[in-house]
Amino acid sequence: MSTTQAGVVVRVMAARVLDAVLHRGRSLKGELATALPQLADVRDRALLEAICFTALRRRGAYNAALESWMTRPLGPREGDLRALLLAGLAQLDALELPPHAALSATVEAARTLGRPHQAGMVNALLRRAQREGVPEGDPAQVWPAWLRTRLRADWPEQAAAIFAASAQAAPLWLRVNPQLGTREIYLAELAQAGIDAQPSEVLRDALQLAESVPMSALPGFAEGAASVQDGSAQQVADLFDLKPGARVLDACAAPGGKSAHLLERFPGLALTAMDVDARRLRQVTQTLERVGVQATLLAADASDLDAWWDGTPFDAVLLDAPCSATGIVRRQPDVLLHRREDDIVALTALQARLLDAAWTVLKPGGVLVYATCSLLADENARQIDAFLARHPEAQPDDPGAAFGHASGVGRQRLTGEDGMDGFFYARLRKPG
Ligand SMILES: C[S@@+](CC[C@H](N)C(=O)[O-])C[C@H]1O[C@@H](n2cnc3c(N)ncnc32)[C@H](O)[C@@H]1O
């Protein structure tokens, strides 16, 4: 296949993925998992991902521009055309691809999608975007009204910044494996490979890359020298101080990023990595194998103690709870399309059950860390307040200002602050 043909195939696939996600309730991850293996060239795969993520993140601005530029609104049977136009705008706007190639491949894709009669319109709209740029628009518009209201109630002064940060691409964060070398050595290896990176001043294992690169380009990646993990997720390990041999439970472990980090940071742990989803738990095996650490893996519902607990308590428990994912919208932009208000009721009930179970299996003198990638107080500060009302003996231990805004007895980092994802942290000690 020629480069030109391959370029058209990528745009057609982007339109199909976006159409499925935007108009048929499909998940971006699932659609990409099917689409990406159909592309042989790693650059085409990277381009498909970049177009889809950018189009979804910035669709508020793109939809507003299309609405004001088009004389007739697109109809319900034109979902693939809208998707293709969003893909086209993403290429010219945030991705800043060379306009000629982006334009001609996208216009040709309209023909391949069975819309030769609308190719001229696609061309005209994209040329206008190239000439005038895409107006910024209001990034809050892509948030469902109920979620916008809740965020504004929880974070009245910061809500606008959260909406804006959630429409931006997230930087690539790496976690350097201290078992295999120092961060300084790894920085030098990156520099040798021509990859520009900055060490974090707050997080001791973390590096932030100036530009995204495929994982295969990272020195020693296959051998576990480094892992891709946002800074907020990396900071969870800083809430622990664990001795060799400590019995640790990671109650919601898949795909295993935080288990791997704890095992790299604190060698000799007896860590149990549990997840209710057996398929996702298999990813934990791969994660741990790559970085060369071991854990006991358990597929179980952490809240159902009769089903899995043998009565031996843990020195520490990490509960990285299932949540609304409102803090990682920039990494999972389809969260805003699929999340329903009822989900929050179910999630907060599940989080409360998981917290109670985690507290039961914790040894006196032990520490329970609760973390979510949510921005909602119901899942975070209020969830922990309710826990403290049920367990007044629990002693909250403030993680400190490096973890974000004080929020109840925990800390909340908001999306984009310090370049990191939105995250909540609380640490609770059980009296000895
Ligand atoms: C936020 S993710 C965990 C991410 C993981 N800690 C990491 O760093 O890679 C939440 C996980 O909780 C799991 N989960 C949901 N309900 C659960 C339950 N009742 N018991 C155990 N795991 C559960 C989900 O399958 C999901 O993998």
Summarize this structure briefly.
This protein has 17 helices and 13 strands. The protein has helices at residues 3-23, 28-35, 42-57, 59-69, 79-92, 99-112, 119-132, 145-154, 159-166, 183-192, 231-234, 257-265, 278-291, 305-308, 335-338, 341-360, 381-390, and strands spanning 173-176, 197-199, 206-209, 226-228, 247-250, 270-275, 296-299, 314-320, 362-372, 395-396, 405-407, 410-413, 423-429.
Return Rg in Å: 23 Å
Could you tell me which ligands this complex binds, including any ions or cofactors? S-adenosylmethionine
The end-to-end distance, rounded to whole angstroms, is 68 Å
How many DSSP helices?
Answer: 17
Please name the CATH architecture of the largest domain: 3-Layer(aba) Sandwich
Can you tell me the overall shape?
A: globular
* Biggest sheet features: 9 strands, mixed
Beta-strand residue percentage = 5-15%
Q: What's the overall average pLDDT, rounded?
A: 96
Question: What is the highest CATH level, the class of the largest domain?
Answer: Alpha Beta
Which H/E pattern describes the elements? HHHHHHHHHEHEEEHEHEHEHEHHEHEEEE
Q: pLDDT under 50 segments (min length 5)?
A: none
* Chain oligomer state: single chain
CATH homologous group name of the largest domain: Vaccinia Virus protein VP39
Plain-language structure description:
The structure is a single chain. The chain is α/β, with parallel strands linked by helices and 432 residues long. It folds into 3 domains: 3-137, NusB-like (N-utilizing Substance Protein B Homolog, Chain A, Orthogonal Bundle), CATH 1.10.940; 173-228, Sun protein, domain 3 (Alpha-Beta Plaits); 231-429, Rossmann fold (3-Layer(aba) Sandwich). It has 17 helices and 13 strands. Strands 5, 6, 7, 8, 9, 10, 11, 12 and 13 form a 9-stranded mixed sheet that branches. The chain has a 4-stranded antiparallel sheet with strand order 2-3-1-4, covered by helices on one side. Helix 12 links the parallel strand 5 and strand 6 (270-275). The protein is globular. Bound molecules: S-adenosylmethionine (SAM). S-adenosylmethionine binds at residues 233, 251-258, 274-277, 280, 301-303, 320, 322, 354.
